[in-house]
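User: I need a structural model of Type II secretion system protein GspF domain-containing protein from Blastopirellula marina for a docking pre-check later this week. Nothing fancy, just the predicted structure tokens so I can convert them on my end. Input:
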Amino acid sequence: MQSPFSSSNHESELDRPLVDSAETVDGSKAERQITPTPISLTPAESAELLRCISELSASGMPLDAGLEAFAEEVSQRKLKLAFRQLAKEIRAGGNPLVDHDLSFVQLPKYHQSVLVAGIQSNRLGETLYELLEEENWRNEYWRDLWAALSYPLLLATVTLLIVDFLNVFIMPMIQTQFLSIYEEFELDLPFDPDIFRAPIISWTSFFLLGGVGVFLIPAFLTPAQTSLLKRSVPVVGKIFWWYESLDLIIKLRLVVAQNIPIPAALRLLEDAVASRRYAELLPVWAEKMEQGKQLGEVWQVSPDIPPSILPLVRWGETHNSLAEALESAERLLKERLALRRELIRKIGPPVITILVLGALFWAAIRLVVLVSPLIDLIEALS
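Assistant: Understood. Predicted structure tokens for Type II secretion system protein GspF domain-containing protein:
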């Protein structure tokens, strides 16, 4: 297999320096060098770039020619420019996949480190493949989870709109008509008519305001408070916790497997983890480990790490097999997430059905209470 920095022999426009024409005072044309603009890739764009590099590494194709070929296939303009810029830098004799500070293509810090570690361990293709496979698993999990929630949420939304339609439009009109009849006949009602003159509450507006509050409240809370609040949400709270923990475990395992020291790996993940709380704790954990503590000891006193994975971490450190222990913890968290997703899929429809029946029962009771005096009046008149 050729080196990932091997270059093909054919020439292209990317081999020539970027130049532009400028007109001098005497009207002649002069060429001036153009400095490329730095290209900062998002995590999704960087993952697509790493996927292409992984395929090229596995095939043994020269990286510069392969990147140019991929540049013709992608539709995103920024990715197209990034592929071509990397090919140009490789042909110029540089190592842009290792010397990121000298490259105009900027990847997320975590992707840069995994890329360098894979090259240094001569496992570039396998490392990138594993990284992308784990990211795909997490993306597919969220898609499956939202698919499991979509039917209950749709049914709940329709029920809420129907209840609001009855509560805001239909019932007030019926109540006004019936109360006017009762007042005209001066009936003694078995209920206080002021109950039906109370201000109307729109449950749709109530839940919309609650949803807005859910998104706004974290802006006024610390990462620790936000994390605690998310975990306290019934049914789905544990999903947030386990998912963020899984994200941390996977990324830590991939870095540790490349023989990167654990304190350095923890600091490396500070800009890569999905959780703000973990991003805040990572440098603290790294500092404690640099003072001589083990990872298991550091996590033992942290309420932010699921306790069930701590025995695996301690076993891995004791037997010098932390990467394997983290892989076992990863499988454990994946199984828990899958079980919780199936639980939502199974209990969601019955719970929503009960809520629908409850809403219909509530509307029927209100109607019966309102109509019963009219029935008594009809019987008395007949």
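Before docking, keep this in mind: The first strand starts at residue 19 and ends at 23.
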